[in-house]
Amino acid sequence: MDIVVKGRKTEVPERFRKHVAEKLNLEKIQKLDGKVMSLDVEVSKEPNPRQADRCDRVEITLRSRGPVIRAEAAASDPYAALDLAAEKLDARLRKQHDKRFSRRGSRRIPAAEVPDHVPGVATLNGSGAVTSPEEEQAVPTKKVGSLEVQGDGPMVVREKTHVAAPMTLDQALYEMELVGHDFYLFVDSETKEPSVVYRRHAYDYGVIHLRTDTMITENDSPEAGGTLGG
Known about the structure:
Elements: E1 3-8, H1 14-23, H2 26-32, E2 36-45, E3 56-64, E4 69-75, H3 78-105, H4 114-117, H5 133-137, E5 141-144, E6 147-150, H6 169-179, E7 183-187, E8 194-199, E9 205-209, H7 214-219
Parallel strand pairs: 1-2
Antiparallel strand pairs: 2-3, 3-4, 5-6, 7-8, 8-9
Helix pairs in contact: 1-3
């Protein structure tokens, strides 16, 4: 790999090109990133006399199989600008190298799994204080709606009960449009069973009827209910 040095609206003297080759040590760069494909150095000059202290600008662009790394700096002469840009490039290369190394060397453990991987680790409560073994064993249980929840949740249940007269499917569709919802729960006037009408695609609708299964009722099975599909 060679270093390409070019000037933008300015001439690049041979002495500066040699200084670039000395300052940007290719062997050192390839140790930090072994997949480097090209290294470009662009020198430009600001003609505005008011910016004499920043008239020379050097931009270094390193391309590899990973992300492109750029570093630029401005100073009163190109040599000082190159030194500043080279320091920035070195810092960014090291940061990228350390990032890759840390990803390969270790696997992140979610906070919830820390006690399983680290013996004797302390457990914190919601306030950030260390919990005692007695507090860990005495997990409070509270009633939320018709469910029992241990600790703080995260389940939140909102329970509503409505009194509704049985209606036809056409009436249920009309009521759904009135309230602006995508589904509507009603009691079918023909079957006297709970049903749900729901919006599908475009102007299509679907309807789900729930029919009581006497076998499930007799066996007191906890598995009941259905899902919206189709």
